[in-house]
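Researcher: Here's the sequence for the chain we discussed earlier.
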Amino acid sequence: MEVHKRILAILYIISGALQIIALLFVSAFMSMFIPFIMEEAGPEGQWVFEWLVPFIRIIAVVVILFFSIPSIIGGIGLLNEKSWALTLLLILGCFKLFSFPIGTAIGIYTIYVYSQNHKLSSQPK
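Model: Thanks. This is the structure I predict for it:
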């Protein structure tokens, strides 16, 4: 069971890091191309970009704060055998179920590891 926990922790650390990297690339892409698109939109369409760009940045920050950083923290906690880490990863795994196909696989694996851990801990010794 410890092997599964280690694999799960590494998957969450990699997943969280890749989410942060992807959001940084999207942010850089938007920063480069939004001024060109705003020029083409003209004065009538620029008000949309003045509201849309900050809104998209806020969404990116929220995704990083609520999903990516806790994934990395939970993965590190599970590697260090903290009792709270597997519960945190179960909650994040439930959210990952909606991210098809890789997130769904990680979410199912998280539920499997959590259920096996609790089945083993509830058996009489």
